[in-house]
Structure formats: structure tokens, C-alpha cells
Amino acid sequence: MKTLRFWKITALFAAIALVVACGSSKDLGRKAESVQAQDEARAKLATVPDTLEKEAFLQKVADNAQSIRFITSKLKFTLEVGNRQMTLTGSLKMKRDDVIRLQLMAFGFVEAGRLEFTQDYVLIVDRINKQYLKVPYAQLEFFRHSGVDFFMLQSLFWNELFQPGKARLTERNLKRFTTDVGVNNNIVVSYENSELSYRWLTDRESARINMANVLYANYLRGNYQLTWDYDEFKSSNRKMFPMKHKVSLATPEKEIKLEMNLNHLGNDEDWEPRTVLSGKYRQMPIDDILRRFMSL
Description:
Blueprint: H1 2-23, H2 33-42, H3 51-63, E1 70-81, E2 84-95, E3 99-106, E4 110-118, E5 122-126, E6 131-135, H4 141-146, H5 150-158, H6 171-174, E7 178-181, E8 187-193, E9 196-202, E10 209-218, E11 222-236, E12 239-250, E13 255-266, E14 282-283, H7 286-294
Parallel strand pairs: 6-14
Antiparallel strand pairs: 1-2, 1-13, 2-3, 3-4, 4-5, 5-6, 7-8, 8-9, 9-10, 10-11, 11-12, 12-13
């Protein structure tokens, strides 16, 4: 019974914390070391003077995006909240402009939970307790207020530039980004949007995105920051894709860290892009799942 209870809590804990960590660009926030170094150096940054050079570099960053429709991989998923830490295995399945799915396994072979993002809704499935939550983004407060949508999440998972509110980055969109010379001869790509600021740390030579950062600064509410680090890039259809994703989220109240280590990267198309649940599953109220999360 203790083992079963552990996996019940683990499945729920991992799913909700991932939604919070991945979903909120208003509730974002931690001063990661790399971002601190970037901020300290910003006073000394020299704006890239040549407009044509800037546009050419931004286009090179955008061109690094994957052109394939499917990315699939086995993964090891580690979650840390305060002094609580848990590690699960699972899989990541993504279909371009359609779905992002994380499946988390108990004991290495039993699916304990599932998290599914589509353009229209977020689905959280608790396999052990036969419960689920399926809601549009607007019903989740951190999505509604921050303007986070499926396409922003997709860009973070796929290691790409994004412009909030846009499904595609066009040449016209790129002109709204700025570039600065950062520490270690990297290039900092920036985009400002009211109280939200977006930063990408890119490699000057390869134009590869090594980090994405979203900062919400508000005098009354405090600062919230999301940092998404990418590492251990591997070739996938002649493009490089990060095999290690380290995500950190800090708010004035708490800090959440998660890490996804991918392996056996592939482009499997033989899977159903929508989860269909049997009548044995019951819908969880939003308030109930959030209350249970906060009480863990």
C-alpha cells in the first residue's frame, strides 16, 4: 500500500509541477547562474551594429529549427521541489503543430501518468487513480494571464525561437528581435513585450540556442522567471537537437526544477496523437488537483 500511495503522489506531483513549470511565463522565475552572468554582462554589451549582419544571424538561428514533423524519444525525468526529488522513466512524443505528450512510467513498465498538450487543451491523466483533467488553456490561471499557448510550449520543447501570440516566425517577426554580444562571445537574442522579457542565449558560430529565458517583472507581485537550458546536442535529420533539457522555475514563494534526459531519439509516426480514455476515468476539478498539489 505504501508503494502504491507513493506512485499515486508521484504521478500527480510530476504532472502538475510540469504544467506549472512549462506553462507559466507570468509565473516564471529563477536567477539561474547563466542568466545572472548574462545580466551582469548586459551593461557591457555592444549592440551588433550591422543591421544586415543581425538579420542574417537571426535567420540562421531560425533555420536551425527542425523541419521534421515528429520527434520521439525515451527519457529519464527528474523533478525537484524544495527538498523533494523523484526520478521516473518514460517517453516524449511530439507531432509538429499538433501535440506534445509526456508519458511517465512506474517501475519502468507501468504508465503512471500522462501529460498532453494540444492547440486546444491541456490533458493530465492519473492512470493509477483513474482520474484526469482536461481543460482549455484559458481555464488555467497561469496560462490565461501570461498568454502562454501551445505554440510557445512547442518552441521550448523543440529548441526554437518564438514570438508570443504567433504560430510561426516570419521574416517580419524576426525584425522585432534584437541581438547583443554576450559573455564568452555568445549572442543574446531578445524580445520585449510589456512586463515580459524573453532572452535566448545562442552560440555565435553555430547559432544554436543553448538557453531560453522568460522574465516577468512586477513591482507589486515580484519577479518570476523561467530558464530552459539545452545541452548534449545530437544530430537528427541533419539538424541538431538537445538531448538534455534542464528547466527551472522560481516564484517569490517556491522553486521548481525538472530535468529531461532523452535517449534513442527517433521520428516514429506510428502512434495515436490523441489520448482516448475509457468510462472508468473520472474528471478532476481544477481546484481539487491544485489543492492536492499544494498539500504535497
